[in-house]
Structure formats: C-alpha cells, structure tokens
Amino acid sequence: MIGTRKLILALAFPLALSGCVTGAEYSRKEAGFTSVANKTATVTAKETVWIQNQNQARSAAAQVKSLLPRTKPLDVETAVQIALLNNKGLQAAYADLGDSAADAWQSTMFLNPTVSIGTTGMGAPGLEAFKTIEGMIATNILALATKNSDISIADTRFRQAQLTAAVKTLQVAADTRRAWIAAVASWENVGHLQRAQATADAASELAEKLGETGAMTKGAQAREHVFVAELTGETAKARLSARLAKEELTRLMGLWGSDLDYQVPNSLSPLPKSVIRRDTIEAEALRNRIDLQIAKLDLEATAKSYGLTEATRYVTDLDILTGFETEREIEDDEKKTRTTAQVELEFAIPIFDTGKARMRKSELAYMRAANLLAEKAVNVRSEARSAYEAYRSNYDIARHYRNSVVPLRTKVEEESLLTYNGMISNTFELLTDTRDKINSILLSVNAKRDFWLAEADLAPAIYGGGATKASAETEVAAASESSAGGGH
C-alpha cells in the first residue's frame, strides 16, 4: 500500500484563522446566574438558587423545610423566600438561561473543517500503471470573517436571557406576595362571616320563639330563617374561596405532601399610618424596569444582525478548499511520485437572488424592534403612574371604610339595640341593622386587601415582574365582588 501524506499543513490553514476567542465565560455551569441573583436580591431582599444536581436539590429542600413554620402562621416574607427556593417553573427559567449560555459558548467555536480523501488507479490486475491519492479540506471562510459579529450577537442574546430570568424571578416573588395577601384576606372574610353566622343563628332562634308566642308573624320568621340560610351559603363560598387561594399560594411555593400543613394568618395587617410618596416613580421605572432593558437589548441584537445581513448580502456561502494530490506512476519498472498542492474557492453567484429580500426582512425586523421598544417605554410610564394611583386611592378607600363606614354602622346597630331594649323598635329592624353592619365589615376587609395588593404592585411597576394574566383576572373578579357588596 502506498503511504498517504499527513494533512497537517492543509489542516493548519483554516485553523490558523481561529484566533484566540474562547468560551470560558459561557461554559461555566452557572454562567450568568450570579448576575441574576444579585439583580433580584436588590429588589426582593431574598435569596434564589439554581439547582443543577442532587446535592443542591437536597440542600434547597432542607432550607425550605427549615423555613416552614410549624407552630405559627406563615408570614409573607417567608412565603416569598420559599417560592424563590422551591418554584419549579423558576428553575425551568434558569435552565433557559443555561441554554442561552450554551448558544453563546457555541458561537465562540468555529465550524469543523470537512476532510475528504480518495484514490484512483488504472492497470491490469496485480499490475498498477499509476495511482493518484487526493485529499481535500473544506471550510467556510465567510463564517470566519463574520465570527466576531456572531459572538457579539450571541452575547447580546445571552444578556437578554439573563434579564428574562431576572424578570421571571421578580414575577414569582410578586405573584407569591399577591397570593399570600389574597389567602389571608379570604380567611379574614371567613372569620367575619362565622361571627355573623352565630349572631344570625341566635336571631333565628329568637324569631322562632316569638312566633310560638304569636309575637312575630310567619312572614317575619321566614325572613330571619332565610337570612340564616343565605349567610350559611355565603360562609361556605367564602371558605371555599379561602381554600383555593391557599392552594394558589401552595403552588407558587412548590409545596406538596407533609409540607401542606402550614397555616396563614387570620387577618391582614392594619393599614399604615400614611402612604409612601413616590413623586418620581416614572423616572424610577424607566431607569430600573428590566423588561424595558430586555427590549433595548432586542433592538441592539437586531441592529447587529442587520449589519451582519448587509455584510453577507451578495455572498451567502464562501468555502475555501485546501488539499493535495499525490500521483504515482510506474514506467519501465521505475516508480515516479509527484505531490501537488491545491487551493479552490467555491461560492454562489448571485444571479437570481441578490439579497434584497433578506435586506428587507432585516430592515423590517429592526423597525419592529424599535417600535416595540418605544411602545414599552410608553407603557412603563403609564403602568408606573397607574400603580401609584391605585396605591394612593385604595389607601384612601380602605381608610374611609375603616374610619367612617364601619364606625357608623356600629353606631347604628348600637342605637337600634337600645331602641329594641326600650321596646321602641322591633326585632326585624335590629336584625336589618346587623346585616348592614356585616356587609360593611366585609367591604372594609376587601378594601384593605385591595390596598395591600396595590402596595405589592409598586415594586413590579418599578422593576418588572408584573401581574400575570391569571392574577389580573383574579383581581378584576375580586373588585367586581367588592363593588357588588357581597364579599366572600
């Protein structure tokens, strides 16, 4: 057999163009996560982890168990911390970050060259007239020429993925805070309805006894009995709503099994003495909103892609082929060997496709990204103003119910009780006033819940991670119930 020449020189040519670009920054298992953890910690003051092996999973599970209270109700800050450690959807978002890091890492690597080798020969069996050995290496030199641009675009997308993971983290924290507030408010409604149920039961028994003595008509008795029956139904609905709200909180915290025994408080914290002034909330939002930064990076990446498309407008595939040809001939029992180097350039001729369509698509992609960024900036300003307006207004509404409506209803009930004891008014009038007081208390609880939800929406309005569609629909439904005066 004829020994073939090594292709060292041929291989060295394309590899020499590779430079010294490395993917060390992207090849680490937690590439980019430190930035995400630091950025979100400044907003939430909580720790988050990226679980990638069994040891980390066991450590996070142990930390969650240590945070779950067994003898006291779960507070909102602990609930948020548990969610950031244990929410599986958040871990999926971090996996997307790792996927983007892998893409950026891949962009630093060059296309592997294609090696081909073959032989041809002629002659009678057992007697060779001549034999030719050919070897060829092909590599795309256009990919080498645009390598820096490819890396820059991949790095921009990687930074965009970091911000996306940060937004998801803030969203989980905000959704958990809202779910905790909704669960506690629901159980507070249940408590008020149960106390009202005890009063209504007593009134129903009194009506029955008065009916036996002939002091109350059957119609009046029926009114008291139906009030008790309706209140029983409302209490059952409120209890169901509270259980479902707690399940929503459980899902966000990623709990199951024996960890479901936790309890939430029976009432929300009282209203603060005053609200926080945020006169510069628009400027804060424009400066800090992470989703706005994502839109900026998307425009940046699109602009870089546009430049790359323009650079490759006419030549989309440009391959350089290097190799050798070794030819051996046998003539007059004398062997002659000749080796010839070869270099070929292969490219497509833009006769039909001149690249105008690709250029147009790039221009439209850039215009789209620019308009989306402008729209995002407008929306961010509006969302910040709306969040602060809701915060201020809900505080005034909740304080109005606390300071005016409930005290007046209490006064009306007390006066009604005095006139009843003085035999000036009848039992039906007293119970009517009691029903009205119950409705006012439930409206007051809902108003306080709306304030704390609005307070929880301030941080997402400034930093990102706003309400999901489901939570927004829940808030609208809750507002509708509040306006109807029914409560839970």
How would you describe this protein?
A hairpin with a 2-residue loop joins strand 3 and strand 4 (334-347). Helix content is 67%, strand content 10%. The chain has a four-stranded antiparallel sheet. It has 15 helices and four strands.
Oligomer: single chain
Number of strands: 4
Structural class based on helices, strands and sheet pairing: alpha+beta
Q: What is the CA-based Rg, rounded?
A: 37 Å
Unreliable stretches covering 5 or more consecutive residues: 1-21, 311-318, 468-488
Strand content: 5-15%
The shape is: elongated
In N-to-C order, the SSE pattern is HHHHHHEEHHHHHEEHHHH
Described by strand count, sense and barrel closure, the largest sheet is:
4 strands, antiparallel
Strand order of the largest sheet: 1-2-3-4
Mean pLDDT metric: 77
* Count of helix runs: 15
Q: How far from one another are the termini? A: 91 Å
Helix content, binned percent: 55-70%
